[in-house]
Amino acid sequence: MKTQRVVSLSLGLVFVIMFLSSGVLYFIPDRRITDWSGWSFLGLDKQQWDNLHIVLGLFFLVFLVWHIYYNWKPIKNYLKEKKKLILFTKEFNLSLALVALFTVGTIGVYFPFSFLVNVGNGIKAINAHHAATPPFAYAEEATLLDYAILTHVSPEEMSQRLKAKGIVFHREQTLKEVASLNHMSPQALSLIIEPKPHKRSLPSDLPVGIAHKKLQELANMYSIDLDRFLSHLKRYHIHTTPQTTFKKIAKEHHLHPATLYNMLLASQVQEAH
What we know:
By secondary structure, this protein is mostly helical. Among the domains are: 1-70; 139-193, no CATH class; 210-272, no CATH class. It is built from 14 helices and two strands, in the order ααααββαααααααααα. Helix 9 crosses helix 10 (186-193) and helix 12 crosses helix 14. The longest helix is centred in the N-terminal third of the chain and has 25 residues, at 3-27.
């Protein structure tokens, strides 16, 4: 068995898998949404794809160094001009320029690299918009008992609903654990616990998935006086409509999403006074 062949073939196989994982991570939305909906691809969830991409990336780097070691002679020939070893050959300079172009273009979000980034973000936004969002961040990690309390469902009522559906559970288990045990998503389990979610008050932190929601959708989900919020935005010379998404408003007016959300919270506090 030749070690050099093993290294080369391993690099090729790892590249194929990393190419696949890059495509998956390019399209799917935030983990907080995928964990809630029970999303998976080829039997792997978002976290597993993240882990696979990172570990194989390190594996790829190690074997790449090994590959360079075995192919050092031809690499040196690429850096030679008239039989002299010169680092900055025409070919090396062109390669360096291409890598620099892609690096600076991506960091600076310049066209056409910005187009690639925006396409990926757009697809993620579409997936996130059609996906259900949890009532609070990392709701799937809450125990059944705490989830019932936080969603204003009595623990006894929750237990009755779960037993009626034949769900195997313990109150001390998390939604994620119970969902996995019963071969369902945390979202599906939550619909059994709380079949008709009531309108909730705005949380102090940014809710999961808010970026891709229209203002009207947020008003329907939470106790929001939309007219008061729109009026409050006008103080900052922001004119928009109920059909505009939260993310679009922030982007068009160069605001951090947290800044816009604080404006929303402030407008509702004014209402209370």
